[in-house]
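Tokens in:
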């Protein structure tokens, strides 16, 4: 193998057989991509968001949701442009690699890995809780392991099967929410005054911001849960039939769908019997919402099974995401190369299995330490920390590429342009500060920081010397760098 250096990184040339063993199959149109994006997020409407009521009151969470909605809209338009211009499986890693070099690309890819590996672990923990209440004799560890085995297995069997099954599960979860909204509105179960029944520090109720402006800041991570993971769609770029047309369409319709769901869930689920005070303390806000609407006309078993539909949809779809992140970083040499070999179904089976093992290990470890009661909130904030850090990096990358590579072919251009990316980046930094400064979850954030430091250490000591020049993300970036160097030499010679 021949080698070449660029900055801190050293590249090796590989033969054609290397990439042939790491190929993906084109199987997705925009509808399946829409399902991939919405399905990954929809569990956020089933639970997690409501913790923000307890932290910020209805007004605090409502304003936080508006701010995070703006952030995600800005980001979605930006990554729609980038995914059409740089259509590779690396997603955010690909974008930041082209803008910030291999080190920046690796750091962003590592934060993405944290988000996508941790999030399914959070979701399967709640799945185990719901199903454990129906069949208490089945250990929660069995639910965790069983769901990982089943849905990792489906992901391994082929992307077409994965996405089609995901479409069905997503539509079921979506219809469950629609049924709930219609039921609340048609049965008279909603009362606006219930939105404001969380007492302030003096025990008084009826305030829009019972915890003041600080309540908005504290509620930001929980507002993010309404939208977290829509950004995984660019990871499917190499498996899209027509990425230039389908990816922007799926991203835009995906965020429109999620915006609508977040508004209805926040208002209607909070305004049922018990109001913000009860829903904010609930482990299953949608299930409690159904109970409040139908009262004795619905059983607890039915409610738990209903709640599981949304959780399963997101769990299933985010498994797809971590598989592609690990695959892309491994194919390019940042992670061990053996991890990116694909199966006869053209799926990254090794990456899928490893991500599952890490997620399960996290659950078992926290449970063994006696932290099972806090695992959901703890892991949620870890996932959010990784996510918003990557958001800030990709928004900065968008701006830099607009300024430094105006010649980059952009089949789709964001209508918000650089101003939109700047706004999205500023809001992501605000959300990042919220996760860091929340004392309840600081130990978890420190743990993530230690993992990041270890990952960067691995890169600096080992993997930066073994990057793969022919990996699509690297090849495009290296070509652009080479052309820039040639242009610089021409300018010097002209002088």
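Residues out:
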């Amino acid at each position: 193998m021949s080698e070449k250096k660029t900055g801190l990184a050293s590249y090796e040339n590989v033969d054609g057989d290397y990439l042939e063993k790491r190929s993906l199959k084109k199987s997705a149109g925009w509808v399946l991509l829409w399902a991939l994006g919405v399905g990954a997020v929809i569990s956020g409407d089933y639970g997690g968001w409501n913790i923000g009521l307890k932290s910020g009151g209805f007004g605090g969470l409502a304003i936080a949701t508006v701010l995070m909605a703006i952030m995600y809209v800005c980001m979605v338009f930006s990554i729609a442009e980038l995914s059409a211009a740089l259509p590779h499986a690396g997603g955010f890693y690909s974008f930041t690699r082209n803008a910030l070099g291999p080190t920046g690309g690796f750091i962003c890819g590592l934060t993405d890995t944290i988000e996508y590996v941790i999030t399914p672990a959070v979701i399967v923990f709640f799945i185990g809780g719901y199903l454990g209440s129906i069949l208490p004799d089945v250990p929660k560890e069995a639910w965790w392991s069983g769901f990982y085995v089943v849905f990792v297995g489906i992901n391994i069997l082929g992307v077409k099967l994965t996405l089609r099954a995901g479409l069905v599960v997503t539509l079921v979860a979506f219809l469950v929410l629609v049924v709930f909204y219609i039921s609340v509105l048609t049965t008279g179960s909603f009362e606006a005054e219930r939105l404001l029944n969380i007492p302030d520090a003096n025990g008084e109720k009826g305030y829009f911001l019972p915890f003041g402006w600080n309540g908005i800041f504290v509620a930001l991570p929980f507002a993010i849960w309404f939208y977290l993971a829509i950004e995984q769609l660019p990871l499917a770029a190499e498996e899209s039939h027509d990425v230039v047309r389908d990816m922007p369409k799926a991203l835009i319709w995906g965020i429109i769908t999620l915006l609508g769901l977040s508004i209805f869930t926040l208002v209607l689920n909070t305004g049922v019997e018990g109001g913000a005070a009860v829903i904010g303390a609930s482990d299953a806000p949608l299930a409690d919402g159904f109970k409040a609407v139908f009262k004795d006309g619905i059983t607890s078993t039915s409610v738990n099974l209903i709640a599981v539909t949304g959780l399963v949809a997101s769990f299933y779809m985010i498994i797809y995401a971590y598989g592609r992140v690990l695959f892309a970083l491994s194919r390019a040499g940042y992670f061990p190369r053996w991890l990116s070999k694909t199966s006869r179904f053209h799926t990254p089976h090794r990456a899928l299995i490893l991500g599952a093992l890490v997620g399960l290990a996290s659950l078992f470890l926290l449970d063994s330490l006696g932290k099972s009661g806090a695992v959901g909130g703890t892991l949620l904030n870890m996932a959010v920390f990784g996510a918003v850090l990557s958001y800030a990096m990709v928004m900065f990358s968008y701006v830099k590429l607009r300024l430094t590579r105006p010649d980059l072919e952009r089949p789709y251009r964001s209508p918000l342009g650089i101003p939109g990316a700047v706004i999205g980046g500023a809001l992501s930094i605000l959300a990042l500060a919220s996760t860091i400064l929340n004392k309840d979850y600081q130990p978890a954030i420190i743990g993530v920081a230690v993992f990041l430091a270890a990952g960067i250490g691995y890169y600096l000591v080992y993997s930066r010397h073994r990057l793969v020049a022919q990996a699509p993300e690297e090849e495009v970036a290296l070509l652009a760098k080479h052309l820039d160097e040639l242009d610089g030499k021409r300018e010097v010679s002209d002088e």
